[in-house]
Amino acid sequence: MPAATAAPLVEFTGVLMEPAKAVSRAADRLGHFEPVLCLVLELEDEHRTRMVVQQPFPPHAFAQAEAAARRHKPGERVRVEVPLGGLRLMAPNAAHIHVLKPQQE
Q1: Which phi and psi (to 5°) does residue 22 adopt?
Q2: Is 43 helix (H, G, I), strand (E, B) or coil?
Q3: Model's pTM, two decimal places?
C-alpha cells in the first residue's frame, strides 16, 4: 500500500486586523470540541482580501490557544501556511448567481 501524501501547503501573508482570539469549535458530530486560534488578516494582494484563519489545537489545550492569541497583536504582519485540502472559500458579497444548463452534445 503506498504511503499517503500530505496535502501541499499554500502560503498567505497579511496584517492582523483584529485582536486574535481563542474559541472552541465542534470537532466532530459526536459533540466533541477543540480549541482554535482565530486571526482576521488583510492579505497583501491587490484587493487587500480579508482572510479568517483558524489554527486548531489538541482537545485539552485551550490554555495554549489563549496564550497564542495573547502573543498576536493587531497590525502584526504574519505568514500562514494552510493545507490546500482544507482550504475553504466564502463569497459573502456575490453580485450574481447564474444557473448553467448542461451542454448539448
Answers
A1: -105, 130
A2: strand
A3: 0.80
